[in-house]
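User: I'll paste a sequence; please echo it back and then give the predicted structure.

Assistant: Echoing your sequence first, then the prediction.
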Amino acid sequence: MKLEKRNPSGREKDEASVEMLAKLREQLYSSNVSTVRQSAFNLSWMQEDGLDILKEALFAKASRRTKGAAAYGLRKMRGRMRQRAEEVLIEGLKHPDPKTAEICGNALIVLKRGKTAGKSAAKRRRPKKPKFEIKEIPAKGRRGRVSPERTRPDDRASRRPRR
């Protein structure tokens, strides 16, 4: 897919950041799934610029893997951009493309499940009781005590006499 040149937003501080954003944007449309997903994750750390690129990829006429990775990047947004990323996913539910709407719906389900799973995970971290209890066996003295099980007459007959 041939990408048009992106106009810098003006928030970039130097030429290196513009080049890095362009590189990540190109990788987002790659055919390698791992590269696409890693690029989306890296864009999730880029605040407004990352949000713009991920939103563009989600709503553009792109492959399913690119749209899925863009939704993944939006889910992974942190800090002040998290709320805006969630709003973009909600906006994607109303998109005319059914593929985009489905991807946004699944991303929102995963996002909501992650919020509630954190609370129940704390309950599951309790230490488990061991299956078997280790009991201490008392040491026998010189003469030894005979257990009640060994006092049966047939056991006495089979024992060797002591010297």
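The mean pLDDT is 80. The helical segments are 15-28, 33-43, 47-59, 64-75, 82-93, 98-124, 153-158.
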